[in-house]
Amino acid sequence: MSTSSTRLRARGSIALAAIALVTGCATADAPGSGTGAKAAKPASADATAAMLVFAVPAPAGATAQGGLHETFAYSEKEGDARVDDVKVTDGVARITGTVWPQKGSTWAGIGFLATPGPAGKTSDLTAQRQLRLQLASPTATQLRLRVLGDDPATRASGCYPVATVAVGAALREVAVPLSAFRPEGYCEARGKLIASVLPAVAAIEVSDPTLSGSARRTVDFSVGRIAIGP
Questions:
Q1: Pair 162, 111: CB distance under 8 Å
Q2: Alpha carbon distance 29, 170 (integer Å)
Q3: Could you give the CA distance from residue 69 to residue 15 in angstroms, rounded to a whole number?
Q4: pTM of the entire predicted model
Q5: Which segment of the chain is annotated as a signal peptide (predicted)?
Q6: Cβ atoms within 10 A of the Cβ of 19, count?
Q7: Which 3-state string (H, E, C) describes the chain?
Q8: Which of 60, 83, 132, 198 could link 8 by a cystine bridge, Cβ 3.0 to 4.6 Å?
Q9: Distance CA 182, CA 221 (A)
Q10: What does the pLDDT look like over 72-113, one tens digit per residue?
Q11: Which residues lie below 8 Å from residue 4, measured CB to CB, with a gap of 6+?
Q12: Can you list the pairs that 209-212 forms with residues at least 24 positions away whose Cβ atoms lie under 8 Å?
C-alpha cells in the first residue's frame, strides 16, 4: 500500500497514522476554546508535582520544552488531504485542513505530533501510567492518539500503538491510560506493544482520520499541553 504525505512545518520532521478505542477516559475543563485557549491548570499541587510535561506547542514549530512540533496530511492517494493552516496561541496549536478523497482514498487524515526535545531525542516513560492531553475539535467527535518510537520501518507501516478519545468543541484535558494503547490489527507481528515503546518515546501524535465517504470534509482540531503522569 502506498502512502502520500504532505507536511506544513517550520522545523523538524516526523509522521504517520492508525486506530483503537479507549473507554472511561477522565476529562477536565480547560479555560477558553480550542482557538488560542490557555493551558488548563492541573487539579492539585500534587498532580503538578507528579506530572511530566512532554510538550507545550510554541510558535515556529518549536515546543516550550525545546522540542519540535509538526503538522502533516496523509492519504492513500496523493492529494486527497491537505493541511490548510496551523496557528499557535498561548500554548495551544490549532490545526485546520481538508480531506476530500476525489482520487478514491479509503483512508486519509490530518495529524499533529510533538517531540520531547530536539530531533533524535527520546524519553523513557516506563514509570508513567497515563497520557494527559488538552484537546478540542468543533468538527470531530473523536481524535486518534499514537505513541511513537524512533524505528523508521514501524513508523512507515503505522504499527506503533494507538488509542482513540472522545473530544468536544471546548478545550479539555483528557487522561488516557497508557495500557489502553494497542497496535492496529492489520499490523500482526509488526505491531509494537506499548511496553516496548515506553523506554524510548520519540513523539506523541494526535490525528483526525475521519472520512465522510467521498464528501469533502473540513478538519479543525486543537492540541494544548501534552503531559505524562503516574
A1: no
A2: 8
A3: 10
A4: 0.81
A5: 1-28
A6: 19
A7: CCCEEEEECCCCCCCCCCCCCCCCCEEEEEEEECCCCCCCCCCCHHHHHHCEEEECECCCCEECCCCEEEEEEEECCCCCEEEEEEEEECCEEEEEEEECCCCCCCCEEEEEEECCCCCCCCECCCCCCEEEEEEECCCCCEEEEEEECCCHHHHHHCCCCEEEEECCCEEEEEEEEHHHCECCHHHHHHCCCHHHHHHHECEEEEEECCCCCCCCEEEEEEEEEEEEEC
A8: 83
A9: 23
A10: 999 999 999 999 999 999 999 999 999 999 999 999 999 999
A11: 74, 75, 76, 77, 78, 79, 80
A12: 209/17, 209/18, 209/19, 209/107, 209/108, 209/109, 209/144, 210/99, 210/109, 210/140, 210/142, 211/99, 211/101, 211/105, 211/106, 211/107, 211/108, 211/109, 212/99
Q: How far apart are CA 201 and CA 131, in angstroms?
A: 12
C-alpha cell at 133: 492531553
| Cα–Cα distance measured from residue 102 to residue 132, given in angstroms and rounded to the nearest whole number | 36
Three cell numbers written together for 20: 483503537
Task: List, for residues 192-202, the tens digit of each pLDDT value.
Answer: 999 999 999 99
Residue 122 near residue 207, CB atoms below 8 Å:
no
